Amino acid sequence: MCSGWKHVDKGERVHFDYSDEELSFRKELKGFLDGELPVYFEFFDLPQQERFDRSMEFVKKLAARGWLTPAWPVEYGGSAHAPWQQMILSEEMIAHGEPRTGQYMNVNWIGPAIILAGTPEQKEYHLTRISNGNVVWCQGFSEPDAGSDLAALRTSAVRDGDEYVINGEKIWTSNAGVAEFCFLLARTNSEARKQEGISIFLVPTATPGVEVGDIDAVVHPGAFHHVVFTDVRVPASCRLGPENEGFTIVRKLLANERVGVARYHRAAGYLDRVAKWCDERGLLDDSSVIETLAHARVACDAARVLVYQVWDERTRGLHPDESAWVYRTAAVNAERAVSEAAFKLMGAEALVRHSHADNQFEWATTAGIAGGSYEMQLNSLARVLLGTKG
Known about the structure:
- The protein has helices at residues 20-36, 48-64, 83-95, 103-117, 120-131, 246-258, 263-280, 287-315, 321-346, 356-367, 374-386; strands spanning 5-8, 13-16, 137-140, 156-160, 163-170, 181-187, 198-204, 210-214, 225-235, 239-240.
- The chain folds into 3 domains: 17-135, Acyl-CoA dehydrogenase/oxidase, N-terminal domain (Butyryl-Coa Dehydrogenase, subunit A, domain 1, Orthogonal Bundle); 139-242, Butyryl-CoA Dehydrogenase, subunit A, domain 2; 262-386, Butyryl-CoA Dehydrogenase, subunit A, domain 3 (Up-down Bundle).
- The chain is an alpha+beta fold.
- The chain starts with a strand and ends with a helix.
- It is built from 11 helices and 10 strands.
- A hairpin with a 4-residue loop joins strand 1 and strand 2.
């Protein structure tokens, strides 16, 4: 098991270290990734279909080694390892361009949501496919008038006998162009208070009435989609958990989404590339260059320490909502700090397409939006600190 956080000097300092088993796992994983992906390859720069095909081929190899869902219970296709292995996976995958693409979402919180609230039939069908790497999902959360404020959503699901009729639209939906299922939030009680009256539906994207369109953005093509639901009929068996209690389920799993992508690790990797660029040009003798690099490195290391706290709390059976919000804001700051450092140090070369600065700018731009906006995380923290609700 993980040695975790060790308290020394009467609790005045905290030390973290990995167990021998975890160090061995990271070494074996890195060796596998170096063999499969000998050169750092930015999967997100590929055309969407090619990215999807390569990812599906790759994740099946992970699944065959028990590395796709290592922290899941054995009965659901996992290996029952401690959550730290999942964190190690997150760091090493993003260091190689996140070749799982949308699969990280399946593993980190869509699967766990089904484990938490699914029927035996839902678990048997969906969890087997996820743990085998045979399916891609998207999440239907944000809407044109309800971005990170999920409770303000308007997409409706009206019960009609043994079916629900869904109408509404979702926006900024990643992977919708290739996803087979949508993890959809819809309002099933329009008279309840905004955090209530919401249900979860596991909707096949091939269902009549589901239309998916691309959204052009400064980031890679296919990153975002607009999904419209027009009189979409799904059987009641597609609902996950009790009616009107979807927000409660999602809230329990949102911390998994906040920490699912090791952004600090990828940002630190780009910072290393910027530092190497500076070294090759003899710039590291300049104290201002060193100071700029150090400032960004501290931001990355701060985010790393904070996410380790989240994983530690999860390992001890806690629900690290507040810790996940703090980490999320720190991860955004790290992404932005590396982007700012790259532009400051690389000058005109930073403006070249696919320069280190250009690539990092894409990540830094989306960092404050994906997985819940930066501002909403701050609002959530403020409510906790001020003792307010809403």
